[in-house]
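sanity check this fold:
=====
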Amino acid sequence: MRRTIAAIVMTATIATAAACNAAGPPTPPRGPDTGTPGTGVPTAWPLPADASAAAAKAGLQMLGEEKLTVHYHAHLDVIVRGNRIQVPAFIGIDRAKQKITALHTHDTSGIVHIESADDVPFTLGQVFTEWGQPLSTTQLGPVTAAAGEVVRVYRNGNQTSDMGALRLAAHDEIVVWLGPSGSMPNVPKAYDFPAGL
């Protein structure tokens, strides 16, 4: 069943509103997220101002609706100096133009949706490019690795030498981590996807 982007945004808005109502009154507005005191790591990284331009940079086409011939999901965790970074909703979605790519997020769960007309590879680098955030061996989002620090990528608990070229597969648990080079972080090996995903 095909859904238009307007329906996707409306569904996400309704779900968010329902969750907020169930959780009680909304939290008062706050300033920019500066992360954990003393670390200088913001835990919320912004989306690009122009989602369509970011999608084009990632080599992805903006579509008027989701295509479900190929349909699977992966999960992304981003951890910087012990801080969990929130993966934002609407990566790969241009709400102003009511367009969506085959590779996108609907919410802040970290679940990455792959909904495509063609069975082509989609990569971790494309997710970060759509997000508007750098990903390299020395840079993760707005954070540059300091002396003695590294950026690592883990798939299902195993470190991989792939970085941006890592191909996403169904039910992958991907962790992108920045921290001391001598540390061996205890990263999740799997993600408990909701039923039906």
Summary: Helices lie at 5-23, 51-57, 124-131. The longest strand covers residues 70-80.
